[in-house]
Amino acid sequence: MRNTSYKRLSPNVLSFIIPLYLLVLHFFPIPITGDSPPLYNPTDIYTVDCGASGNLKAWDNRIWIGDTNSRFSLIEKNKASIISKAAKTSPSVDPVPFATARLSRFQFAYIFPVTTGQKFIRLHFYPSSVAGFDRSKAFFSVKIGGYTLLNNFSAALAADAHGDETVSKEFCVNVKQGDQMLNITFTPTASDPDAYAFINGIEIVSMPDYLYYTSPQNGGIQFIGQKNVFWIEIEYALEMVYRLNVGGRFVSPMEDTGMFRTWDEDDDYCVKLAFVPANSSIDLKFTQQPEYTAPPDVYRTARTMGNNKTENMGYNLTWVLSVDSGFNYLLRLHFCEFQPEITERQDREFTIFIANQTAENHADVITWSGGNGVPIYRDYAVMMPSQGSNKKQNLYIQLHPNPDWRTRYNDAILNGIELFKVSKFDNSLAGPNPDPPPNSVPPPPAQSTSPKDYDTQLVAIVCGMVACIVALSTLCLFIRRRGGRRRDADPGASWWARLSRNEFTYSFPLTAGQKYIRLHFYPSSYGEFDRSKAFFSVKTGGGYTLLSNFSNSFFVETDHALENVYRLNVGGKSLSPTDDTGMFRTWDADDEYCVKLAFVPANTSINLKFTQIPNYTAPLDVYRTARTMGNNKTENMGYNLTWFLPVDSGFSYLLRLHFCEFQPEIQEQHDREFAIIIANQTAENHADVITWSTGNGVPIYKDYGVMMPSQGSNKKQNLYIQLHPNPDSETVYNDAILNGIELFKLSNPEKSLAGPNPDPSEAPAPPPPVQSTSPKRNKTKLIAIAGSVVAGLIALSVIVLFIVWRGRRVRDSEPSDGGSWWGQFSYTSVKSTKTSRSSLPSDLCRHFTLQEVKVATNNFDQVFIIGVGGFGNVYKGYINGGTTPVAIKRLNPESQQGAQEFQTEIEMLSQLRHLHLVSLIGYCNDDREMILVYDYMAHGTLRDHLYKTDNPPLSWKQRLEICIGAARGLHYLHTGVKHTIIHRDVKTTNILLDEKWVAKVSDFGLSKMGPTSMSNAHVSTVVKGSFGYLDPEYYRRQQLTEKSDVYSFGVVLFEVLCARPPLNQTVEKERVSLAQWAPACYRDGKLEQIVDPFLKGKIAPDCLQKFGEIAVSCLQDQGIERPSMSDVVWGLQFAMQLQESAEQEMEKSGSWRKVKDEEAPLKASITDDSDDAYVLTSDSGGTWDSKSSGVMIQSSGEEKSSTSCESDALMSGAVFSEILNPKGR
């Protein structure tokens, strides 16, 4: 046992030794080398290499002084400490000061003579086991004066938690007037006899007065979420937790302004690595702060959000910083506007959220700094309260652009971040040690769902879908009886109209009270009444002007008239007037208004309890569907669930938000708490539906008044509704929910609701009449009109005859495949330049010059090739000064094919934004090149992780998550955009995986817009796709529907399950086609026998049965019998729940739970042809025959691009998106 009585140095010893060291140290300065004079010259600089002797030069050319046999003798008892050299140092670790250390099982101290003022103290540790000293036993405390910097600290745990080999800690303390020494004391933890303390290096550097501390002349700094200000007083000690060069490179100590600070890159902390502008040539003007505040590189680089206004308004530029709970923090944000277009106030104005609280509503760097190129910083104090047993929590820094009427550019900018922990009242900065890394990562906790709950849900689903079959059958019979008599408008309300060139009035006898008034218009030309001449006003009793010079529903209240602008069933389907609660209101789907179509939960079986609002408030369907953000906590904290609603400027609005918690896991207060931001103002900091409604299944609504002031000549502006989850300290689930939206315009003081007419869409419409039209008619005009009508009839007859002659021979031949949607793509040679001009709009995405692409790929160096396809090569490159990795796809220069695919991919991807779709950054078409630049997908293609690969196999839950993500991406293409988009080339090489294993659908060169009207259920087109994945119905009939993607995805599902290619010519005939063999095994009850051997015994039987059922239903021969992608998403999520529930059961019982007969997963019987939910019945549903096996074409390879016999020339070389030999994306 070691002697523990010597815990403090004797005052007598100190009084004898200290004066001697003060004298010696003061006259031996420590040399520091540098190439240029620093911006700040510290009065005190010490760099001590503990355990070493003599002067040693570090990699950055700084000179470190060894503490052995030098003036840096230790204060310790009986010289109990030892020096040691690390047994082995990593090549990435600078041996100075990390190669040597001083270790002791007793207390020891270093004493330094210093001047008065604030100091940096940096302690460097390299946890390594040496003889007699196990790295895992190093637990100790560090104190300076009366401050506890570290307590029971383990450098090994700290290094392992961050994946680093070394640990450096930086602190700030103030040396008071009259103090002549600074003592740093190391004390092993007394409770463990084997504990010891060690240190590799010590730095002490003076800093300018009040660089981080609050000056007496300063009025304090903003305390986030508090009414009072906060002072960083000199009595506090500080610990630097983060110092980030936002958007820029690592800045070493020698590149600092003389204080030897380290500035790290922010890549690991920024949720979405957005645009990284830089201006290395700008002449910075330090008129607002000292030049030594931060290095020039910090102010010459930044992160912004880019130029896509709609996308920017839908998310926050976010940094996530993990901090110790129970402390206050000083947060310093560095700003500098260096982009030449930002020169005036309100050019770029944004909101700053810190710890989910609004810090700045109108952040404007130009206003703060006084001009472009002028650095400025802003300080904030943040309290991060304790969270029970949680050692750590996340501090979120979020920037959100302000709306159009506040700023010229909807953007935000940040250049640098510094975060300091502030000592507590007991002068302690010590935080807890990280938890030891587990030997194996436990599976994430699954939400518990009892078998009884599943039975109830399944019975409800079956009943609901049986009812759906009856309704759908009735509708189909009605449609068949109607035949060709279909009309877009209801004849009851729209075929007849009353028209007049004179004022007319309707009068109705009414009871007292509020009323709905709905006016229905069908603008059509009636005889001599031209639709373009219909301009009129509408007024109602009380002097309210509803419409003025109008060229659509509302009700009258006692003091205001209101016009309904939007009524949205969030996450649900459109509801007709007869679906309403008796007031014949129409509820639209919200797909066109939600920026990010996230998760859409539903609970059709829940028994709603209307205890807070009347049951006629909204239809039941509104409260049984919703949008949420999902379960990805990190992703959720980085964006807002956003709706944007264009509204008339100059009016106030009533906004009603409908809520109902129907998910079974949300039962208690604070289960799901979030913030509501309306018109970029915080409306609710702690929105909690359970608190408002008092329970699950209880509908509630909240009303808000919103003023949308006039914006000059802008007729319209966007009203943004945004939901953001609250942090862990306030909620169980980092999520948000919304069920419905109603928005009403309020009449203005003139009792008017009239807004301006929209601008004409194409041909200019005639101006509104200023005065009444004369009843006289000009005969010349009539003759001209009659002649035009006759000519039009002749032309129309010719067109009709031509269409009849063409009959059913409609095809879209090359090169115009898809051109009817996106327009013809052509190059025009320009002799005076090497640039090929094209019809590509440059505002859709970034245009790269060929030189930029060559720099990014080192002149297309083959070393950078990560994939080879029929289109050409795929390179890994680096843009934005080498800071951003990208994937660059280049057409073979000798090829003349792929122009249409190139055009299609740019036009499509630049307008699609979804978590599960690959993001297009830009393109290059200089010098007749065709090059696309995408986000780099670190984990390559899904196929890279299934077979013929050296990558470790994916777990079953990983595969399920990837399938769910890809299905969501396809569901968005089919239903989340204005017109259905059919991918046409769904396969495992076109599903990419990012660094977080998030699946993203890619390669849209073959994509096609789906039918644009109800009268056409398909698109007639040349057959394109890939062997093994091709829909047999599409191949036979050459009629494309979104169900062709469903078929291909079914092949993907079996490919994921079996880890084998879709076509394998080396096996017996019945096993060649995966699309034929796997369903046959499923029908024979042998599905488990063909599962990837790695997964044997790891898939719950229930989950496997459900997964196989989904895949088989996707491979039905007839598209009408296949599920929609919405159904596939639902089924896969259900399979995931089955797996997680079974795993929980297995933890308890040690074996998979057997499915009882009455619990057996239901088979899918597909009965819809309109992408509605498919019906679950108790039998297999549908039939299967040899026609369902896919297109059998003999091929020497496993997969080739195929076309119909009419286009044999369109082989793989013409398919822009195909990757034949993917090595990574």
TrEMBL record:
Residues 860-1135 form the Protein kinase domain. PROSITE patterns: PROTEIN_KINASE_ATP, PROTEIN_KINASE_DOM, PROTEIN_KINASE_ST. InterPro entries: ANXUR1/2-like, Kinase-like_dom_sf, Malectin-like_Carb-bd_dom, Prot_kinase_dom, Protein_kinase_ATP_BS, Ser-Thr/Tyr_kinase_cat_dom, Ser/Thr_kinase_AS. Its main location: membrane. GO terms for cellular component: plasma membrane. Residues 428-452, 749-776, 1178-1206 are annotated as: Disordered. GO terms for biological process: response to metal ion. CDD domains: STKc_IRAK, TM_EGFR-like. It is found in: Membrane. Residues 433-446, 757-770 have a biased composition (Pro residues). It is a single-pass type I membrane protein. The chain crosses the membrane at residues 12-32, 458-479, 782-805. ATP binds at residue 889. Keywords: ATP-binding, Glycoprotein, Kinase, Membrane, Nucleotide-binding, Serine/threonine-protein kinase, Signal, Transferase, Transmembrane, Transmembrane helix. SMART domains: S_TKc. One of its GO terms (molecular function) is ATP binding. This is Protein kinase domain-containing protein.
